[in-house]
Amino acid sequence: MDALDAFRRETRAWLDANCPLEMRTPVAGDDDICWGGRNWTFKSEAQKVWLTRMAARGWTVPGWPKEYGGGGLSHEEVKVLKEEMRAIGARSPLESFGIWMLGPALLAFGSEEQKKEHLPRIARGEIRWCQGYSEPNAGSDLASLQTRADDGGDHFVVTGSKIWTSYADKADMIFCLVRTDFSAPKHLGISFILFDMTWPGVSTKPILLISGKSPFCETFFDGVKVPKANLVGTLNRGWDIAKYLLTHEREMIGGGGGGLLGGRSPGQVAASEIGTDAEGRLADPFLRADAARAEVDALAFAATMTRYKDEAASGGKGVGDKSSVLKYYGTELNKRRYELMMRAAGHEGLEWEGARTNDGERPRGWLRTKANSIEGGTSEVMLDIVAKRLLQLPSA
Amino acid sequence: MLVLNDDQVMLQDAARGFVSEKAPVAALRKIRDEKIADGFDRGLWREMADMGWTGVLVPEDHGGLGFGYVGAGVICEEMGRTLTASPFLSTAVMAATALSRAGSPAQKERWLPAIVAGEAVIATAVDEGRRHDPAGIAMRAERHGNGFRLTGTKTYVVDGQAADAVLVAARTGGAAGEAEGLSLFLVDAKARNLACERLSTLDSRGAVELTFDGVEVTADDVVGEVDDGHELLEMVLGAGRAGLAAELSGTAQESFTRTMAYLKERKQFGRTIGAFQALQHRAAHLFCEVEIARSAVLAALQALDADPAGASLAVSVAKAKASSVARLAAQEAVQMHGGIGMTDAIDIGLFMKRMQVASTLYGDADFHADRVALARGF
Ligand SMILES: Cc1cc2nc3c(=O)[nH]c(=O)nc-3n(C[C@H](O)[C@H](O)[C@H](O)COP(=O)(O)OP(=O)(O)OC[C@H]3O[C@@H](n4cnc5c(N)ncnc54)[C@H](O)[C@@H]3O)c2cc1C
Ligand SMILES: Cc1cc2nc3c(=O)[nH]c(=O)nc-3n(C[C@H](O)[C@H](O)[C@H](O)COP(=O)(O)OP(=O)(O)OC[C@H]3O[C@@H](n4cnc5c(N)ncnc54)[C@H](O)[C@@H]3O)c2cc1C
């Protein structure tokens, strides 16, 4: 306890001295987030300073081992760091698919060379990754994917296409599921490979979303040559890695990766926008009742995130299939939150362009949350996983 | 860490073993069918005392275990699984909280060892109308000599039918709706001018309506400070609400477990009904809700142990969530059991009935959602 208190004091002092004031304000929309990568242009000097200082301490990935660019902190210390960052409203210095998804998978399945090569660069925000999973005919039924990697001797030849690849046009590298055995049952012929988005044969085409943005792409592979050293784990056994990675992705999405409310709940936002009565109650009783129930659920859900992580840490394991509980509940809750935000906004939420509303930030955010219950596996698929794996209900 | 520690896990195992052996749902049926006047089994209550449960919240220097609110909640949760009827919540949780936090030395000396020994039952009397409204308390306690005279009616006093004493919240000042002017009194259940009417209740455990017609108490019967009982009452209610939330979480978990077993066994249309996705998705959703309620309850119990006066937000989150989840679990249980779920022969209906009582007591989901909203600034 004492050591943890000391850690808290040191952390507080360090953050206070090192977190630029600009980085203690809520991000103003998706474009304000630091993603890093070879072609990254920092939005401000403060964003750069903040990333550099945090990465130097390994605190972009505080729980990873030090030798791979992490902070080497214990579960409890990571919690303290997050609490202290939240206390001063500090932004996350770096968001990345490398941190959320690929990193944990490499730590569990990668070779020593692969860990040494990729993890520190993820930690420093030098390489931006994208996820090549979904295909036009392999969405929920991901294991039916058809992108092929044929044996070319010391390399694979990758041909096929992916869809819904978030930020494929901005990414430096891709972690990609490919079929390496067409005769085996579908789960047993998949491999997990890594390659560079600048290599010959890779091309991308952006897809416009209902929120008016193009964060994701169709991605095409036309005979891309990928050295065999870039295979992670065992040939044809990539499905295990894919699933492991998905549990991390789901935990992250469930935790509100898509939400940009700056830590305030819809009820609080509505109270500041609509006003309250003499007793402090939000002046719209219907909205208040719904917001109050959402608040109860949000606080109870936050306790569940904490409980699962604490249980996992004390049991020495990951959250596992319970990530489906978090993904399902957290994303449905986030959609509810944005529905409430739109109700609170009224006419103010109807503007699409213009400086007054930061180009319709709220309705665009609202539209973006509709993807929360689709990306990373749909709510229906999450309920299937809970029913089959956690509850062991029979298959049809 | 939002997990049980080793001691708490041991307590949980012991409690689960005890209630499933000594107080299964069949024991509640016996209380109901034989119309046992106390609403619980005295012999069982003494056995609980032998297990040390009566002393979970009593400090060690008065013979208790001092296990804290997480320990108390673990026991409530296990009792919720088997619908165990006992004065645990009224006496070992709420009265023990009041007396150990604010009792005079004489009150502690008189009552805490008796609670620990399983010899005393103490009820708490708060509500006066159809909805839980502690701020709305109107009952008067007028000064009379160096004591007080209590006049008014308290309704739905849990365990009042078996109580030796009743902790009563009344007004020594202020008006209904105000926090100031509340005082707590420990009144002998056999006091003169105190009339007690037994209520037959949905959950078979009973409660009473108490009519005070100038009941005389002395200054020594005041628990805490005169006129300043609001915070203490909140603390006692907080303990009761958290205990009920834990019980409701247990009730929800058990309704859910029984439903899953039924889904895996019942066949219709040539297969087990648990294979139908329409039911699977509802079951999976319900599981998520049950998980969320469990976390909220544990967070509230830990918050109470850390700071009983500052835990009201966490407690209201837990009571609101556990009340609504236990309701959903009971409704889905009856529905997924089909016709058999409507029969008295199987236990599912008993869970539905206790859920209704426990979720209404000391503030239902709406009452607590309102408090959560206010605490969060809207
Ligand atoms: C914003 C966003 C970002 C994304 N980013 C990426 C990315 O970076 N990389 C990547 O690889 N993919 C990405 N995806 C793709 C995502 O993983 C898929 O959209 C998702 O897995 C669903 O697949 P689908 O769109 O083909 O829907 P489908 O599988 O066609 O599903 C259509 C509907 O049918 C339902 N359904 C399907 N099967 C069942 C079943 N067995 N039982 C009940 N209902 C069922 C689904 O729940 C859904 O409601 C992203 C998606 C979005 C929206
Ligand atoms: C108060 C009452 C009065 C009644 N009176 C009469 C009467 O007078 N005469 C008479 O003949 N009957 C009567 N019934 C029986 C009634 O018609 C049946 O209870 C009803 O048809 C359901 O059958 P079950 O109880 O066997 O449930 P089950 O068929 O076992 O169903 C259990 C659960 O599984 C669900 N389920 C079953 N199949 C599927 C599926 N394919 N997909 C999704 N979910 C499924 C059901 O919806 C239910 O939730 C009465 C029932 C009640 C409760």
Question: Can you describe what's shown?
Answer:
Chain A is an alpha+beta fold and 396 residues long. Chain A is built from eleven helices and eight strands. Chain A has three domains: 3-123, Acyl-CoA dehydrogenase/oxidase, N-terminal domain (Butyryl-Coa Dehydrogenase, subunit A, domain 1), CATH 1.10.540; 129-236, Beta Barrel (Butyryl-CoA Dehydrogenase, subunit A, domain 2), CATH 2.40.110.10; 241-390, Butyryl-CoA Dehydrogenase, subunit A, domain 3 (Up-down Bundle). In chain A, the strands form two sheets. Chain A has a four-stranded mixed sheet. Chain B contains eleven helices and ten strands. Chain B has a four-stranded mixed sheet with strand order 1-4-5-8, covered by helices on one side. The longest helix of chain B is centred in the middle third of the chain and has 36 residues, at 230-265. The two termini of chain B are 30 Å apart. The model of chain B has no long low-confidence stretch (mean pLDDT 97). Classes of the chains: A alpha+beta (396), B alpha+beta (378). At the A-B interface, α7, α8, α9 and α11 of A face α7, β10, α8, α9 and α11 of B. The complex binds flavin-adenine dinucleotide (FAD) (2 copies). One flavin-adenine dinucleotide (FAD) binds next to α8 and α9 of chain B.
